[in-house]
Amino acid sequence: MSFIKALNWRYAVNQFSDSQLSEKQIHGLIESVRLAPSAYGIQPYKLLIVKNPALRTECVASSFGQAKVAQSSHLLVFAHQKRLTSTDIDCFISNLANSQGKSVSDLALYKQQISDDLLSKTENHQAIWAAQQCYIGLGTLLSFAALNNIDACPMTGFDVAGIDRILGLADQGLSAAILCPIGFRSPKDASAIRSKYRLSQDQLVVRL
């Protein structure tokens, strides 16, 4: 399937079938997020793979009653860091240096650039910045899913505090940014037959 054809095929699934994703498919989805772009390469978030039925059922109430949270194959949760510290940056630079066969001192200017930017932000703006990185990861995941005939429904309409409590995110310095049930569409899902509406290229694009 071509990429554009895959994008036309995908939609936000409302009703999932009982079919389950394989571990190979889950691994591919995880890799798509792991390899996604991220500002500075820091990736200030975690991807939670929620399979536990009891946890997912509990999440339904904090998702305004959307049953697909519990009825899909898996529930993915992008949870961003609520704040970033010099320790986070030190750890990132150390890992980056190791992966590139460099010394930490070789990356001193890059470390300073990151520190000047991120540590000058308020805690609220750090959280906003970290959540933005989740959306980049989500876009890559949705593209991979569509190319591999895996259905998904990205969701931002949920009670953040409720999801954070259920999944124990606050204790980890994290907060939920996006929920994304994944699996396979039900043949009974009425949303599947609706025409996809998007802006035309003329409406969307401004050429300068």
From TrEMBL:
Natural source organism: Pseudoalteromonas porphyrae
Signal sequence range: none
InterPro entries: Nitroreductase, Nitroreductase-like
Limits of the Nitroreductase domain: 8-178
Cofactor(s) demanded: FMN
Entries under PANTHER family matching the protein: NAD(P)H NITROREDUCTASE YDGI-RELATED, NITROREDUCTASE
SUPFAM superfamilies: FMN-dependent nitroreductase-like
One Pfam family this sequence matches: Nitroreductase
Taxonomic superkingdom: Bacteria
Protein name (record): Nitroreductase
Keywords, alphabetical: Flavoprotein, FMN, Oxidoreductase
The keyword Flavoprotein appears for this protein: yes
GO molecular function, one term: oxidoreductase activity
Family: Belongs to the nitroreductase family.
